[in-house]
Amino acid sequence: MLKAGIIGLPNVGKSTLFNALLRAHLAPAANYPFCTIEPNRGVVAVPDPRLTALAQVVHVPTQIPAAIEVVDIAGLVKGASKGEGLGNQFLSHIREVDALVHVVRCFEDPDVVHVTGIPEPVRDIEIVLTELVLADLELLQRRRERLSREVRSGDKHALAEDQLLARLQAHLQAGRPANTAGLTREEQSLLVACPLLTLKPTILAANVHESQLAHAEEDARVRAVRQYAREHHGYETVVVCAQLESDLVELSPEEAAEYLQSLGVQETGVAGLIRAVYALLKLRTFFTFNEKEVRAWTIPAGTPAVRAAGRIHSDFERGFIRAERVFWKDLVEAGSVAQARERGHYAHEGRDYEVQDGDVLLFRFHV
Fold first, then answer.
1. How many CB atoms lie within 10 A of CB 69?
2. Cα separation of 116 and 122, whole Å?
3. Are 279 and 272 within 8 A, CB to CB?
4. Distance between CA 129 and CA 132 in Å, rounded?
5. CA–CA dist 46, 277 (Å, integer)
6. In whole angstroms, what is the distance from residue 30 CA to residue 16 CA?
């Protein structure tokens, strides 16, 4: 299962957001820096209204959503790349995840301390990014030193890698993360021995107070975060109210919906954040169903049908014959499997068919 790591300065709401994502109070969220030392881990369901629509059409009682693992990583501080605030330990936790959710605090609260005194979102983002960049520069330098002998001997692979590392070094020294360097797939494959922190796909979570939520897009701090993220790093920004979502865990769905309505909002942003992370990881969803359940399965974009079959069971991949496919919306609009077949919406696909997001598949196999 792919992992998304929650990062940011201390006391910006990372553990609160983690609890909100899991809809449970699993991680301590206290008002002091480094409340979190060891990372908290949990599995988060991906909200998907298509599941409910499909369950109604195929008349099954159980819905099993797609899921991703979320890791709550302790706060980074200035000097983390040199070991400040247990920075080396925390940076190693970041290396283990596939994508980053960078939480930035966009509200003031005298009861919640801030490590630099007053939240200044752009400055706070730059503190964390600078530490990640510095850690990457150190890793690049060590890797180039290890390659030096092979480079001097004229090894073609070593020369190609060293040239790429030199280019990335200049890019990072300009304060830009590696994931904005426009690397090709081939270039990224050369970096297997040099796993850069800033090469990880990243999304910014602008954490606001509940009083800001209804008009968050007009908030000066949120707008500054969104503009900075887009113009300087190409990051998407999602607005969340982590504390509110965490508090809503204690309420029934009806009570929670009523309270949100009183604030003038439909959701706190957490559901949108989960969907955004799922997209950030370049994941796709296909569906299967039987007489008991309809289920969402996660695959990387570009996965062929035979590999998607293996996601369910290795026997499906080993004995793959074909996949019967219907697009979820065609099935829902038809109202039944029989009607969808009669309208010609079902197709037979071979092993190399690239599974599309929203496909409903039935695999035929023989072992």
1. 15
2. 13
3. no
4. 5
5. 9
6. 9
How far is 91 from 74, CA to CA, in rounded Å? 9
Alpha-carbon separation of residue 83 from 79, 91, 106, 134, 141 (angstroms): 7, 9, 27, 12, 18
Report the C-alpha gap between 245 and 65 in whole angstroms.
20
Structure tokens at 54: 């499909």
Q: Take residue 44 and report the two structure tokens written for it.
A: 């988060």
Q: Are 15 and 26 in contact (CB under 8 A)?
A: no
pTM value?
A: 0.83
- Stretches where the chain sits below pLDDT 50 are 27-36, 80-81, 83-87
Three-state SS annotation for the chain: CCEEEEECCCCCCHHHHHHHHHCCCCCCCCCCCCCCCCCEEEEEECCCHHHHHHHHHHCCCEEECCEEEEEECCCCCCCHHHCHHHHHHHHHHHHCCCEEEEEEECCCCCCCCCCCCCCCHHHHHHHHHHHHHHHHHHHHHHHHHHHHHHHHCCCHHHHHHHHHHHHHHHHHHCCCCHHHCCCCHHHHHCCCCCCCHHHCCEEEEEECCHHHHCCHHHCHHHHHHHHHHHHHHCCEEEEECHHHHHHHCCCCHHHHHHHHHHHCCCCCCHHHHHHHHHHHCCEEEEEEECCCEEEEEEEECCCEHHHHHHHHCHHHHHCEEEEEEEEHHHHHHHCCHHHHHHCCCCEEECCCCECCCCEEEEEEECC
Could you report the per-residue pLDDT of 223-280, keeping only the tens digit for each? 999 999 998 888 899 999 988 888 888 888 788 888 888 888 887 788 888 888 888 8
Q: Return the C-alpha torsion angle 3, 125, 17, 70, nearest 10.
A: 0
Angstrom CA distances, 5 to 42, 58, 69, 111, 127, stand at 11, 36, 9, 26, 17
Note the residue count of the chain: 367
